[in-house]
Amino acid sequence: KGRQHSTELRLQPPPPDLDWIRATSLIEIEHKEWNVWKMTEFVIQFKKGDKIIKENMIRVQRLLNDFEEKYISIDAKIPEAEFDHIVVFFKNFSNNPCKIHSLKIIAFKK
Predict the structure, then answer these.
(1) DSSP per residue, 48-74
(2) Residues 32, 61: contact at Cβ < 8 Å?
(3) DSSP assignment letter at 80
(4) Mean pLDDT across the chain, nearest whole number?
(5) Most exposed among 39, 50, 97, 108, judged by the fewest C-beta atoms under 10 Å?
(6) Nearest CA-CA partner of 23 in 45, 52, 51
């Protein structure tokens, strides 16, 4: 409860020989949010300036149960369209707390 939008982690584009981004976070909840529109979103955005070129998002409570803590990952294929940075963040629309314990971001070739 309280903060609804995490700090945005801003990253430079990866080297051109890599084609995927993976963000992995250790996430903990007390009570599952059942309303899909209030579930916490784990988001990766590729941006050029303020314009969103591509966005991938998952709702973390779809993967968690009451009083559960687990690592959750989201993959995003790097777009061919030009972008100048990547942003990773969380949005929680629920009154149920969602704790983010760690965040690791990698780029890789599939």
Answers:
(1) ETTEEEEEEEEEGGGS--TT-EEEEEE
(2) yes
(3) S
(4) 94
(5) 50
(6) 45
- The confidence score (pLDDT) of residue 39 equals 94
Residue 78, C-beta contacts closer than 8 angstroms, at least 6 positions apart? 13, 14, 18, 19, 20, 21, 46, 107
pTM listed for this prediction: 0.92
Residue with tokens 């968690």: 64
Contact between 89 and 9 (Cβ < 8 Å): yes
DSSP 4: -
Q: Judge contact between 51 and 91, C-beta under 8 A.
A: no
The residue written with tokens 């991938």 in the block is 56
The C-alpha atoms of residue 65 and residue 60 are separated, in whole angstroms, by 10
Partners of 51 in beta bridges: 48
Q: Between the CA of residue 13 and those of 17, 48, 70, what are the distances in Å? A: 11, 11, 28
The span from the CA of 89 to the CA of 35, in Å, is 20
CB 42 within 8 A of CB 58: yes
